[in-house]
Write the structure tokens for this entry.
Amino acid sequence: MFTSQASPFALDPATGSLVPINANVVLFASVLSLVLVELVVSVRADRWNRRDSTTSVGVGLGYLALKVATAGSAAVAAYIWLYRNVGIFDWSWRSPLTWLAYWLIGDFAYYWIHRAEHRVAVLWASHQVHHSAESLTFVTAVRMPWTEVFYKPFTGLWAPLLGFPPIMYPVMGAFSLMIGQLQHTEMITRLGWLDRWFTTPSNHRVHHASNRQYLDKNFGGHTMIWDRLFGTYEPEVEAPRYGMTVPLTDQRVRRVVLGGYPQLIGSLRGAESLRQAGRVALAPPTH
């Protein structure tokens, strides 16, 4: 989601002081409640992948611990400084049009960031952690790359540059977390016309699938507008097969969190020059 790395702080619109709004609390509460429901349904249907879920929880807890440790302080400071000193426009957080604009621009930015994470080797090495799950459940949503905490918060700095108030950042972040959580499930089937324009569970199942026709499709965080506009939309037709095209043989947390870095580092070591190493890092990955 375009603000999934939301800061734990916002500016109080009345006083201008920092107040705590922790999107991670929202994530934890939503994950716990949804997982409990899904667990009951899946166990009854004999569809619960215990190993996969345990690994996802382990990866997710490590990710959350890193987020709490780093707190996104640098990104928070950068956001506030850019808003106060560089912001091109002056959007009012009280206007519904401001929230709509933030949502649409953010979804556009997320589409290209997410697409790059699939098409640039050094980014895919990190992002593939999320795609290594061999099932799609609400727990899968928390299988997040640990390395994202060091760069993903800064991808939201387009907002203060455009003059969106800092108070919007964590609010939209919490909203995105809840929406993203609901996208990771097989319990919700096709949703008719909603599947044409929004990132529904059906469209996100396609994104997570390793079926050849589903690879690098449906990048949108909230909508399918940009996927349709830029030719990356694919509807769910056949049953998705989840996980990597070359499945990980070791699904322990300590291996999963390494993502594609072992392979990438090996390729970089074989480079004959710095320029060639750069080309390897920026080339499309081999799925």
Remarks:
- The chain has 13 helices and two strands.
- The first strand starts at residue 9 and ends at 11.
- The radius of gyration is 19 Å.
- Confidence is low (pLDDT under 50) at residues 1-21.
